[in-house]
């Protein structure tokens, strides 16, 4: 399993937005230094909390600060863009980043964004599919294409600049609670990004989504790979102790809970004290606030329930101050990401072997006397 960050972002409206956006860019640099594989950036236009309006612009800036980490739209709302224009911009980014971009796609925000553009939210899923099919044709064919929809036209369209990546840019479809995302992923043989399906039986819904993707792939003559499956997991803040984690998130958790409650989340209330809120959030399965052991236990249960997931994405939050937020990502990289990997497994095996040998074979006895170290040789038989 690879690991990354899902930078929606979620910034408090009373925070300086310029500083917040530059803090996001600094985070991407930090993530690369810590060994994270991917960073995803949202597209939002109206909530007041999530204000990266153009993930492509953000990727352009982040690509010049980094050299290795992959950078993704998380996700581009396809009904808001002409397919040729979006494909053309992504190819430009592919060259600027030297092959590190991922095109994450979705139907866009139905609550605020679509109405501001005069779009009926009921049309978004159909438009997503129409645009997705056109973008894939543009990315994967050298021949001109023609497409006619009630909202865009492409006549003898093709990309003058081909993607940097071979054979093409990776394209991923978002999946919420319906079967639409898995169906598209299977039909076109794409990656899948699972969002918002974690609490209250979420593991079962995740497993069902992947089953649908595999079934549709078999019916369409394509293939889907678990390596291309991403999960934006529970919001998370880690610290050395549970008490420290709770103190950290007291900085901004109440404001975020108010935003969640206004957005329809009823398992928490802005009237609760911080400890009650944390207890309820942890119990819901949608949040992890505590030590790295809590995160390891969650990943264990997740893999037991759904099997392999290619990349686990940690959503970013402004619950804690910058230093504590960075420490949370560092603790995850140090003590959660290596869990079960061959490097730490071999080190543990070597430690166990060493301990077994030492316990059976006495060595030099070390004595401390008046500030001096005295070594007595012990017969080894």
What is the CATH third-level topology name of the largest domain?
Answer: TIM Barrel
Report how far the terminal alpha carbons are from each other: 48 Å
How much of the sequence lies in strands comes to 15-25%
- The overall average pLDDT, rounded, is 91
Low-pLDDT stretches: 377-381
Q: Enumerate how many helices there are, as a single number.
A: 13
Q: Can you give the helix content as a percent range?
A: 40-55%
The number of distinct β-strands equals 15
Q: Report the C-alpha radius of gyration, rounded.
A: 24 Å
SSE blueprint and pairings:
Blueprint: E1 2-7, H1 17-34, E2 38-41, H2 55-63, E3 70-73, E4 76-77, H3 83-96, E5 101-106, H4 113-116, H5 124-140, E6 145-148, E7 153-157, E8 170-175, H6 180-188, E9 191-194, H7 202-220, E10 229-232, E11 235-238, H8 242-249, H9 253-262, H10 274-284, E12 287-290, H11 292-306, E13 311-315, H12 322-336, H13 342-360, E14 365-369, E15 372-376
Parallel strand pairs: 1-2, 1-13, 2-3, 3-5, 4-5, 5-8, 8-9, 9-10, 10-13, 11-12
Antiparallel strand pairs: 6-7, 14-15
Helix pairs in contact: 1-12, 2-3, 3-5, 6-7, 11-12
Can you walk through the features of this model?
- It is a single chain.
- The protein has 381 residues and is an alpha/beta fold.
- The protein folds into two domains: 343 residues, Alpha-Beta Barrel (TIM Barrel); 32 residues.
- Helices cover 44% and strands 18% of the residues.
- The chain contains 13 helices and 15 strands.
- The chain has an eight-stranded parallel barrel, surrounded by five helices. Strands 6-7 form a two-stranded antiparallel ribbon.
- Helix 6 links the parallel strand 8 and strand 9.
- Helix 6 packs parallel to helix 7 and helix 11 packs across helix 12.
- The longest helix has 19 residues.
- The chain is globular and about 80 Å long.
């Amino acid at each position: 399993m690879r690991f990354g960050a899902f930078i929606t972002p979620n910034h408090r409206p009373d925070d300086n937005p310029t500083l917040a956006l530059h803090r996001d860019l600094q985070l991407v640099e930090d993530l690369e230094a810590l060994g994270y594989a991917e960073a995803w950036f949202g597209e939002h236009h109206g909530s007041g909390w999530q204000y990266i309006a153009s993930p492509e612009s953000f990727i352009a800036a982040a690509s010049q600060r980094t050299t290795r980490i992959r950078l993704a739209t998380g996700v581009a709302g396809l009904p808001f863009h002409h397919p040729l224009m979006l494909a053309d911009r992504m190819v430009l980014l592919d060259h600027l980043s030297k092959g590190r971009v991922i095109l994450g796609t979705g139907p866009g925000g139905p609550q605020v964004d679509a109405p501001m553009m005069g779009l009926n939210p009921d049309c978004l899923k159909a438009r997503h599919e129409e645009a997705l099919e056109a973008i894939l044709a543009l990315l994967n064919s050298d021949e001109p294409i023609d497409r006619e929809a009630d909202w865009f036209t492409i006549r003898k369209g093709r990309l003058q600049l081909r993607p940097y990546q071979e054979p093409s840019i990776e394209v991923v479809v978002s999946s919420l609670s319906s079967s639409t995302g898995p169906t598209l992923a299977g039909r076109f043989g794409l990656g899948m990004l699972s969002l918002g399906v974690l609490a209250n039986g979420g593991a079962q819904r995740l497993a069902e989504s992947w089953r649908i993707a595999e079934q549709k792939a078999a019916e369409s003559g394509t293939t889907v790979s678990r390596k291309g499956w991403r999960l934006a997991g529970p919001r998370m803040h880690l610290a050395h102790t549970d008490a420290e984690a709770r103190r950290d998130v007291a900085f901004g958790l109440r404001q975020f809970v108010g935003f969640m409650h206004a957005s329809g989340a009823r398992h928490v209330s802005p009237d609760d004290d911080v400890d009650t809120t944390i207890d309820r959030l942890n119990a819901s399965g949608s949040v992890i606030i505590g030590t790295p052991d809590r995160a390891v236990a969650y990943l264990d249960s997740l893999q037991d329930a759904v099997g392999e997931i290619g990349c686990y994405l940690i959503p970013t939050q402004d619950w804690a101050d910058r230093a504590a937020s960075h420490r949370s990502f560092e603790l995850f990289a140090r003590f959660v990401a290596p869990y079960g990997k061959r490097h730490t497994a071999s080190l543990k095996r070597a430690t166990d072997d060493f301990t077994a040998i030492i316990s059976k074979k006495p060595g030099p006895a070390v004595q401390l006397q008046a500030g001096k170290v005295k070594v007595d040789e012990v017969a080894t038989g």
